[in-house]
Design a protein that fits this description.
The chain has 123 residues and is an alpha+beta fold. The chain contains 5 helices and 4 strands. The protein has a 4-stranded mixed beta sheet, with helices on both faces. A hairpin with a 2-residue loop joins strand 3 and strand 4. Helix 1 crosses helix 4.
Length: 123
Amino acid sequence: MKLELTPTERRVLRAEAHGKNPVVMIGQNGLTDAVIREIAVNLDAHELIKIRVFSDEREVRVQLFEDICNQLDAAQVQHIGKLLVIYRPHPENPKISLTKQNLVRASAPGKTASPKLKSNSKR
């Protein structure tokens, strides 16, 4: 069963993933058992990972995203270009906190926009 996220949780995780590099690459052989194991190992270690898919077909990437999340009980955070961002909390010792306090702080007005973006929005 795939984990579902609220829009606020997804926004917090996207921000957290922004500076991360892909840890798993999916090539021409697609989603093999070895790739699934590697994704699972990295999810256990990091909870939030990026995956690079070397396929030019968007439909293939969307299907891979869904298959990975369904097989590993993970949540789809973001699909942008050839990068997939996936989250699965560690069952015993979660590292990323999606508590109500963190989510409220992340959704507070004015916390996410930089001053430059704020000044442009007043035009």
